[in-house]
Amino acid sequence: MTAKLLKVLTGINRTAAPSSGSTVLVHDLYAAMPEVHTTFLGRSPVDQAWKTAFDQLIILSTTKRPHGPDFDTYVDVLTREVSALIDQTQPDAIHAQHLGFALSVAFTRAAGTIPIIAIAHGSDVMAAERSTRDCEFLIEVAAGSAAIVAPTHALADRIDCLTGRRFTERLTVIPWGIPLRNARAHDRPRLGAGPLSLVHAGRLDANKATLTAVEAIAVAAQPHRLTIIGSGPEEEALRERTRSLGIQDRVVFMPFMPRQELWQRLPHFDAFVFTTSGSEAFGLVVIEAQAHGLPVVHSNVAGMTATLGKAGTPFTAGDPTSLASALDQLARDVHGRAALIRAGMDNSSQYDIVRTARELTDVTTKTVSAGLT
Length: 373
Hints:
Layout: E1 6-15, H1 21-31, E2 36-43, E3 56-59, H2 71-89, E4 93-97, H3 102-110, E5 116-119, H4 123-130, H5 132-143, E6 147-150, H6 153-162, E7 171-173, E8 197-201, H7 210-219, E9 225-229, H8 235-245, E10 251-254, H9 259-265, E11 271-274, H10 284-291, E12 296-299, H11 302-308, E13 313-315, H12 320-332, H13 334-348, H14 353-372
Parallel strand pairs: 1-2, 1-4, 2-3, 4-5, 5-6, 6-7, 8-9, 8-11, 9-10, 11-12, 12-13
Helix pairs in contact: 2-3, 3-5, 4-5, 7-8, 7-12, 10-13
């Protein structure tokens, strides 16, 4: 007798495409859940290749509104749309991505007796730490959830603090992962001392602090080269700073690229630079880099320590001189760099998306079963 598929309703209130870390993660996650029938709510336009991870993809019709005088009305209208979709899809459980964001609030208000597993991604927690209104929304979603999933203990503790430690027993840590079976550390050229070919990949915003990497190139003792892959609001300022420092010949900008293309390029660099200065939920991109044989030089923020342990080289967040010193040392110490590559590959091996999917499925199944008793 064939077991009944677990029906899950989820979504992210963004373009249904690999446009951010969370959208890339959910694609990998639900593609690794063959025992779950997933209905995903998103926005147009839809990336047809990306949508194949889901059994059904529904485009939200409620016009999206930013925070402001119309936001509460927008959430009310979105809640009515989500309520109708819940009636239509009849899920066993709801995965509310991004605690406190509009869609997770709508899920919470429309769910009725359907259990909610809230899933934190980091940007939601940072928003709640900056804004009282966002914090109120996060608390509402946490209160309406049967379980709250975070990728690290550090992020779980921040959620616990924001919610006044009222929902501690609902918090569970499930580390994120990547499809390791597709990662390949290509044959690398012989390691040698000298300037490094560096890569930074991610959204170019203030929290990612890519400026630290640009300025480190200018003050480093060796003429390292940096390739910046990504797009975002800080891009023009970064380009201007590169010009003002006179290092245009050593800093290259490339737009956001699909994972397959990024993964093909990663093994051709000498090291990965991660510069987030504020906070980081998990930092999946550093795991991707390690899985492809790159040593990682990272800012010493809490999220990175939890993800990397000792399998990375830390520098003082936001300090170009500290980063430059770490890069120069990495370039000189060939044996240390080789050891870091091995440690990084060992570290990345524990972050398989198959494990993430299995653990989230287990939490969902137990939550649904508990609601039926």
